[in-house]
Amino acid sequence: MTALNPDIKIISRNAHPDSSIGGGRTNLVGLTRSDISAALIAIGTPERQARMRAGQVWQWIYQKGVIDFSLMSNLGKDYRALLAEHFTIERPGIVARQVSSDGTRKYLLKVAGGHEVEVVYIPEKDRGTLCISSQVGCTLTCSFCHTGTQKLVRNLTAAEIVGQILVARDDLGEWPAPGRNPNIETRLLSNIVLMGMGEPLYNFANIRDAMQIAMDPEGISLSRRRITLSTSGVVPEIGRVGDEIGCMLAISLHATDDETRNRLVPINKRWNITTLLAALRAYPRLSNSERITFEYVMLRGINDSDEDAHRLVQLIKGIPAKINLIPFNEWPGAPYRRSSNNRIRAFGDIVNRAGYPSPVRTPRGEDIMAACGQLKSATERARKSRAEIAAEINPTTGATGH
Ligand code: SAH
Ligand code: SF4
C-alpha cells in the first residue's frame, strides 16, 4: 500500500520481529506457536518434542510474564541455558510513564530504530482497557487528529504490538502468583482497543498475529469480544477483520456527507461513505449481538447539527450498530473546537430515538493528554517545537525543519 501523502516517509512495512535485539538472538515475543516450534527445532530440539516445548515456553511468556529463561522450572537446566544462548524475551522499553489524577496511565515506549509509541491504560468500574498503537505515527492525515500530523511512519511488528500488552501487565503487576489460574482472577487489563497511534488495517498481518497471541487461551487469553479494532475506513481490508481476527469492529465515520468527510477523514476520497457502508452491510460478522461501533467525533459547527444526526441514522439504516459520540479532544494548535455538552446531548437524543445506543465517551486522562487522537511521540513533538521556534525566528525558512 503506498502512502497517500507523499511527504510521509515509510521506514519499513511488515518488518519481522527485530532479531537484532539481544546480540543476534531471536526475540520469541510476537512469534506464532509454530514459529516458536520451528525455532526450537533449529537449535536442536528433537522434532517430536518441539510442539510440547513451544507450548511450555509460550505459557512462561504469556501466562506468567517471565523474561528470564532460567526461571522456566519445568525445563531442564541445560535446555534453559541453550534457550538463553539463542533467544530473548523482549518488550519495548518504557521511556516515560504518566499517571493521571483519574487513574489513567500513559506509557511512552521505545521501539527498534529509536522510535516511540504511546500506550494508554484506562481503568473503569467494570473493566480496564488498554489502548494500543499499530504504527509509529500514521500515513493518514485526518485533520482533527494529532497523530496524523506526525510525519515519520513505520509499522509496528507483531512483537512490538504484543509487547505493549506485556509492558502494561508488568506495570499493573498483573502476572499471576505461582499456582494461581490467571483466567479466574479479576483482570485489571480486560479489554483492548486498537485506537492508539496508526491505522491498524495498514498493518493487517502484524495486527492479526498479535491479536491471535492476545486471544490464545494458554496465554493472555482475552476473548475476541473484548478486543475492538478501529479503522478510518480501509474498505478492502474490513472483511478480513471478521474472517481472520474475529474481534469487534469500530468505524471512524465522523461525518454524514462526503464533502465534510473528505475534509475530516481524507481516506474518504478513496473510499467514500457509500462504498464504506456497502462494505459494512456485507461484513461477515454483522448481527445484533455483534454490532458495529461507529465513532463520531463531535466538532463544534462542523458535523454536530440536528440535520447531521438525522442523516446519520438514515445512512446506517439496517446495520446493527452503536454510535460512540466522542467529544473532540483538543490539542495545541488544533483547528477545531469541541461541541458543547448540550449539542452533544441533543445529537445523541436524535440517534437514540432512532433505536441506536449513542453513549458519549467520557474524556479520560485529560491532564496527561492521554486521549484518542492526542497520541504522538515525544521526539516528534520536540522536533515540531524546534521547527516552530525556527519558524518564529525566520518565518520564510523555518516551517519545514525536520
Ligand atoms: N486510525 C484508526 C485508529 C486510531 S484513532 C482510526 O482512525 O479509526 C482512534 C479514534 O480516535 C478514531 O475514531 C479517531 O477518529 C479518533 N480521534 C482522533 N483524533 C481525535 C481527537 N482529537 N479527538 C477525539 N477523537 C479523535
Ligand atoms: Fe490516522 Fe486514525 Fe489519526 Fe486518522 S484518526 S490520522 S487514521 S490515527
Description:
By secondary structure, the chain is α/β, with parallel strands linked by helices. It folds into 2 domains: about 20-90, DNA polymerase, domain 1; about 95-380, Alpha-Beta Barrel (TIM Barrel). It has helices at about 35-40, 45-60, 75-85, 160-170, 205-215, 235-245, 260-265, 275-280, 305-315, 340-355, 380-395, and strands at about 10, 25, 85-90, 95-100, 105-110, 115-125, 130, 135, 150-155, 190-195, 225-230, 250, 290-300, 320-325. Bound molecules: S-adenosyl-L-homocysteine and iron/sulfur cluster. Iron/sulfur cluster binds near residues 142 and 148.
List the helices and strands and how they pair.
Layout: E1 9-10, E2 26-27, H1 33-42, H2 47-62, H3 77-86, E3 87-88, E4 93-99, E5 105-111, E6 115-123, E7 128-131, E8 135-136, E9 152-155, H4 158-172, E10 191-194, H5 204-215, E11 227-231, H6 235-245, E12 248-252, H7 258-264, H8 273-281, E13 292-298, H9 306-315, E14 321-327, H10 341-353, H11 378-393
Parallel strand pairs: 1-9, 2-3, 7-10, 10-11, 11-12, 12-13, 13-14
Antiparallel strand pairs: 4-5, 5-6, 6-7, 8-9
Helix pairs in contact: 1-2, 4-5, 5-6, 6-8, 9-10
Iron/sulfur cluster (SF4) is lined by residues 138, 140-142, 145, 147-148, 198-199, 232, 252, 373.
